[in-house]
Amino acid sequence: MPGGRPGRPARARLRRLIGYWPALAVGAGALLFWELFGAVTGMPRYILPPMHEVVVAAVVDAKSHYIPAGLVTLQEIVLGFFLGTAAGVGAAAVLTASARLEAAVMPLMAGLRAVPVLVVAPLFVIWFGFGLEPKVLVAGFVCFFPVLVSTVVGLKSAPENELALFRSLMASPGQVYLKLKIPYAMPHIFVGVKSAAVLSVIGAIVGEWVGGGNGIGVILIRATIANATTSLLAGVIYIASAAVVLFLTIEGLERVLLRWYYESRATRGDAS
Amino acid sequence: MSLIATAEDVAVPRLAAEESVHRIELRAVAKVFDGGDTDPVQAVAPTDFTVASGEFVSIVGPSGCGKSTVLNMVAGLFDPTAGEIRINGTAVSDRRSFCAYMFQRDLLLPWRTIRDNVALGIEILGTPKGVARSKAEVLLRRFGLGAFVDKRPAQLSGGMRQRAALMRTLLCPREILLLDEPFGALDALTRANMQEWLLEVWEQDHRTVLFITHDVEEALFLSDRVLVMSARPGSIKLEVPVRVPRPRSRKVTTSESFNKLKEKVLESIHDESVKAMSET
Amino acid sequence: MKWSRLEQPLSTGAIVLLVIAAWEGGVAWLDIPPYLVPSLSETVKTAIVEADEVLIPASLITLNEALWGLAAATVVGVTLGMLAAESKTLERAFMPYIVASQAVPMLAIAPLLIIWFGFGLAPKVIATALICFFPIVINTFAGMRSMERDIGHLMTSLQATRAQVILKIQVPAAVPFIFAGFKNAVVFAVIGALVAEWVGATGGLGPVIIRALGSFETPLVFAAILYIVAMSISLFVMTTLVERSVIRWLYGATSQSA
To answer: Which pLDDT belongs to residue B221?
Structure first.
């Protein structure tokens, strides 16, 4: 940069950002394609309305339409997410307490994972009706498995040497969990929780597809039937934003929590 | 008859008549690594040394002194920032075509049999697959791995894998062998066996060897000459000729003259290690 | 604590039996009506009675969609993964979006596919492919990039050509990774097809379940779930068997799964 700012890191960061021009080009190209698709191909409007119309619809109808529906869906998502995550972590803690139990149950869990959400959703509707509960339960159900699996893997990831050290110090089981197993499990748990975040959104939407109600999922289905693509795309934008925000929030939380974790590891490495 | 089945393809120019030409010659070679976001690092200070044709030369030095960097530059993996590397008396831009390189790790491909792993080098150099395989097999049978030609690397011990890696290197029709701590990952007993085995193999065609190690006894036992490198930025600090007649047996390592040499080299390295430690 | 080889499958089996007994016994004992929770025997009976007329034809339609979607995801995913591993520009153009797509619920665009591609095979194949694509492309990419630096140096010192490095090192090294990705994808393949069926279809297990739900034929719903789980698990088991023999052929007796 002429007359440029000194300092290597700043320049390096800029260079790295410029290095990602292909991604920006693809993103800009895709948006341009979307915007101009109808005008260039002459395809009917309901196939792909121009981007600005969708954005306008998303903003104009926000108050009357998307925000009330979004809040309903968001409630399902958040409740389901916490329910599924808590159940997953809890079940993993119980299972890993006994190697025997874990070895017996984990293969079953892998099998249960193959049960699609969509099929569980209607059962929950039969059992729990058309209210909030079945949607929360569907969202929780899909969150449960990735969190369970990653927590089980995480709780077993403490190195044998350190476990032996704790044993030699006569540490109580509680100390082993708090000071060793849980810190080691954290990075793994976060992997599961992050995929649970996205899955909880899918779960809530699917729950609404099956069980109706006033959420965004219902808007999507109605729009599909009416070939109202603008409204459909606007709904997708809201859902995708919710998923991304949830995902980024958890990633931010991870960064804060694991910074503590990695720093503690680093200082331990320094001291030795 | 030379050891390596491919020696006739090599057409190694016999330089014996022309003693003044060195096989490898480094003139004021230095290397600075551009650190990217951090400050540049001078890895090698201006360094001069030569290796004669058929000579076995080792470089020893404290860790991080730049010995591997020197080897990588001779191998042509990257160029020096300053100075010149000559091979057979001329500065060649593509030094790779003269050198066969072996690393500390065996780098055997897990999906290839031992035979196919040993054949890999000449296969890449253009030998038809069938020919390459049979040459590899001849070599493996001659040097004690005949029973393992169809096994995969995972089924062999570390020492056997490293022997296979060495055979892959030897099979390449190159005049110069560059060995970068080839036995560094092995246990002491296996390592001693491998050293004797390497000498036995090397005695058959006396190719030029540049050998990197941090094991002083290994360097002295194997080499005609040992070069000691200083701490970073590395340069040659001491040169120790080893005038022990060949073929050598393990016994020489307990002789008094050998131990004197060892003491001398160790002292020199120790000074450098202390220097390196105090800098960090 | 040494486990005998049989102990784990036996204890898993015991738990399965326990669950089945609780299910069967609980339904009978509490006198739960079949439209709420059908007993296992009722479910199996329905699965057999309705097999020829309803469940097998519908399963074949769903399976067909899932397999085409899986095939499309594999072809596109492996190709794109390899290209992105080879070209820095392509990597930077597409990988950020591929990674970011993980934070977006792909299933939400299933309705869009119906609008774009109608009610035929295409939207189901695309929905399946969209779900299966991610693990395949990511794993292929990682596998092609898994070459160690020193092997790269070895190849450089041998003056190997790009083609030699790709064919002799990178592709064989990527095979276990690609299988790992494919196994992840297989689990979702049937789900992907089902989601697209749900949003718009006349054939397949999706409509069967929707119809059964509408008429409170819960045993048929359970029977359909049985077929779906059976399909997913057999796809997974078949993939694992193929993987095992390919890896054995490539890597010898010891498997080196990534």
So the answer is: 94
